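hey m, so remember when u said the tokens were messed up on ur end? i reran from scratch. heres the input so u can diff it against urs
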Amino acid sequence: MTPIPELVQRAEVLIEALPYIRAFQGKTLVIKYGGAAMEQADLKEQFAKDVLLLRLVGIRPVIVHGGGPQIGDLLKRLSIESHFIDGMRVTDAQTMDVVEMVLGGQVNKDIVNLINRHGGSAIGLTGKDAELIRAKKLTVTRQTPEMTQPEIIDIGQVGEVVGINTDLLNLLVKGDFIPVIAPIGVGANGESYNINADLVAGKVAEALKAEKLMLLTNIAGLMDKSGTVLTGLTTQQVDDLIADGTIYGGMLPKIRCALEAVQGGVGSSLIIDGRVPNAILLEIFTDTGVGTLISNRKRH
């Protein structure tokens, strides 16, 4: 028999969550799923349960997933060499075939199957389904002081988002389905584009005017120069942290994505540690949260 104090503690947890459940009922939450949360078996199971719980209490989750390590593994097995420029995978036609196979097939369907196995109603999509993610070729330029004009670098079928088919997504979420989106875009002539999953998640959140954008990472959140996790940041504070060099390197694109989403109408953006069990629930349903929140409002 469970001891009474433990039962009381469980009840207190539920009571603490109640105001947040009420506040977020009927609201859309876009989650970028990747990193350790998508690779470790126990965290994968927990993620599926967390997403299902969100749906059962009336929140509308939309998932955008990555898959870089899985793509890299298959390319290696096929003896196809990978090249990166500014952190982006150079994607020729052969590599794009692998990207579509891994993201739209293996990874997407694994996530869908996991959620459905726990009782959810997930539907897997790529950006090519009903032109969900309209895209164009990403132009990458580089300039050094000795250059008279920027050099244009061709990184192949890497794209940027032009538009999102919100009609399709709204139809699904209002029908109690959980969309699971692979970040593959479609061009004006039907060509495929490999797009960064953080960027897709941000654009999906903007298009849906989501209440929250959550980016799962393998770090505790945005840290200051002394290693303390920062949270409750306004968009102006984030701009200041970029300007003074606190935010730099690989964290810059993720932070810019989160910042642009808030500036584009999303209620708040969060960068949370996907290595923490139940990280999504802790961030949404507790007073403190477990990551970095960017908003023009107070936490939650």
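this time it looks ok to me. The chain has a mean pLDDT of 85. if urs says something different then somethings off w ur setup not the seq
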